[in-house]
Amino acid sequence: MIIGSGGSAGREGPIAQIGASFGSLVGQVFRLGSRDLKLLTVCGVAAGVAGTFNAPMGGAIFSMEVVARRFRIGDSVPILLSAVVGAAVAGTIIAPAPAFTNPEFVFGTQDLLLCFVLGPIFGALAFSWVKFFYSVEDLFEGLRVPKILKPAIGGIVAGIGGYLLYGYGIMGVGYDGIARIFEMPALSASADLILFLVALGLVKILATSFTVGSGGSGGIFAPSLYIGFVFGVAFGLLAEAALPGLEAASPTVYGLLGMAALFAGAARAPLTCIVMIPEMASSYGRLPPIIIACVLSYATAQILMRGESIYSIKLGKKGIFIDQPQPVLKGISVGEAMAREVVAVGPEMPLRELRDLVIRTNHTGFPVVKDENLVGIVTFDDLRRVPIGEEGKTVGDVSTIEVVTVRPDQSAKYAMDLMYQHKIGRLPVVRSDDPKRLEGIITRTDVIRAYEAEAERR
Q1: What pTM was estimated for this model as a whole?
Q2: What are the structural domains of the chain?
């Protein structure tokens, strides 16, 4: 609804979330481990992005470079396969067509030299775009109005910008505006045209920041391409005006370089842009200028943003740092480490039988189950605290009723933290959809064993 009603946002954000959710759902249905669950989530993103932009290689690299960040070589096979299938299915339903008019990548040596100038400039532009975007988001977070009204305020700003520059892609994804500039007659380097292109870029930044920053659902990939394109065309026209004897490429080709360079810097995704922009334009011309522009923009933006990106800054504000090494136990789920064969006891069991069970099994704790529902837990310490002469009591008389439990989808680190926090040696594992239904048990020994196995694999 945001994009369809004119909000300035991209399609890749919602489709990436939908694809990731579907991949995660499949993993949960089949009760896969956390590593496989993450892989399916990344595969869902790859399929969604590839289908949306008709760019299977770009979708696969985007999911690996931006979403996964760290992955094994073997993971690339299902990710690439998912991207190809996603693009093929989307192409069957909707006739595939290039996102932009097919341009000719014709570059000379002088153009390559200009790319060394364009790259750092667009890295600085990427930094400014990201900072402004999050300043608007912070503004809306501090705005004391009902949350339901915030997207309406953002929509008003986007609507005003779209009205003033109607037909040039300010509202919506922006590809119609890019196509319109491509279709213009031969562009001449006039001050009015350069200022107009710069105004388009600034208004698109404003409209996108207010649309998404106010809480609207949408991505920033497509708007970043638009912003990079108009600034890139302006750069080409400026170069033409400043160096009249230069036999430079068409300004619209510099627009494509600007697309790639701006997003490479903003999202820390140079490989994605090097592959995806030519793929979206169905033009695999000379790659050296795109590589130069993307790498230099990426390097400049990383210096200015101190290693952050437009996708990671918000996570960092919540204390989530995706580039920091994660503890080994965070990558292991309780379901992978737990014991599924559980020795459980009933609340009516006499304590004499419980003592015999401890000796026979060498276990020091047992879940208490009645009518297939977890009703407590009893340990050797509970048995030891029973006064002499009261051995006639039952398990239900001495067991702990308020049981600390975990679910199979939670991390082994979380389980270990709970055991240390409550000074206990085991946790019953219950079903995610039924906290009374016992699925297994996890002990400190189980966690240590899983840690050692995972450390050996790494």
Answers
A1: 0.69
A2: 1-97 (no CATH), 98-317 (1.10.3080.10), 328-457 (3.10.580.10)
